[in-house]
Amino acid sequence: MLHPINDNYINFGKGFPIRLKPRLKARREKQLNDLIGQMISVADEKTEPISRFTYNHTQSVRLRPVPGEEPVAAKYINDWGSHIFPKYCIFFHDGSSTVTNYQKFFEHLVSDNSVQVLAVEYPGFGNYKHIKGTYENIETTAKAAYDYLINNFKAKPEEINLVVHSFGATVAANLAKKVDCNSVTLISPITSISQLKQYFNKTTGVVSNTLTRVKNNILAAVRPRKYDSLNISENAGKIKGKIFVMSSCNDPVTNIKWVDNLVKRIKKNGKQVTFLRDTEKGNELTRKNACIISELMTSLD
Q1: pLDDT tens profile 24-53
Q2: Helices 135-152 and 168-176 sit at what angle, rounded to 10 degrees?
Q3: CA angle in degrees (0–180, nearest 5) for 237-243-248
Q4: Model confidence pLDDT, tens digit, residues 239-295
Q5: Range of 285's domain?
Q6: What is the number of structural domains in the chain?
Q7: Residue 62 and residue 168: Cα distance in Å, rounded?
Q8: Cα–Cα distance for residue pair 127/48, rounded to 1 Å
Q9: Which of 114, 145, 273, 292 could, after both became Cys, cross-link 243 (CB 3.0–4.6 A)?
Q10: Could you give the strand order of the β-sheet that contains 273-278, starting from the edge strand earlier in sequence?
Q11: Does 3 fall in a domain?
């Protein structure tokens, strides 16, 4: 079992502590960014760019997460009724599509449940090749979206809910440990680089040779600490809002065992989490998901 000593050392059980060299952190970041690069290519081939958003109650929002770079667009979806009882949702999509693929889901949230949605497109995805698609830039884009709601809509942190699908769980967990929010809903979440690789391979059929060569014992040594940007269980323990996890027992992409283990680790870190299992098969977001999410938001009012 691994025990933290400080930021630079890990104690392997009864043995002497060994130093985690900085290059291990750099290697992990490179692995993640390489994988994101592959995701961008697949998203370009299999999905539509954000400019083809066709839902009527939609307007473009320009975020500038990287100083000196051209802005990245998000989509703000709203219906008149949602102004009466403000419920803001920042949505982070998965790694093999763009926000355009979720239009029906957004429509259900807005028209059926009076939720205002800010759908964030990641740098590098869709039309946004002018900003490099790295995990660091994705994180800064997420923070820019949160700041946009606070500054432009005067939204209160207790009115903001993060809703994410798959890879988006990593983005939301890192954001929600830094800012206040009402709730975080993780749908079919990915929990580590190794699991992300498995998910990506199942979804696209692409094999990441770089990740395949990484030894499992290296992953086990580095994953529990801050050297893994995908360590959702550690980050979720620092979230101030409520945590909801949704997953299907028959999800063909995200193994339910991953989600079970994630929930156990979050609880072990002293954080309350509500786990909603669905017996239906599927990884896609539906009207049913939208209704459940809206009910969760309302229950927290």
Answers
A1: 667 777 878 888 888 888 888 778 888 788
A2: 60
A3: 115
A4: 888 899 988 888 877 778 888 888 888 888 888 888 988 877 777 888 888 888 888
A5: 21-299
A6: 1
A7: 20
A8: 9
A9: 273
A10: 58-63, 72-77, 116-120, 88-92, 160-165, 183-187, 242-248, 273-278
A11: no
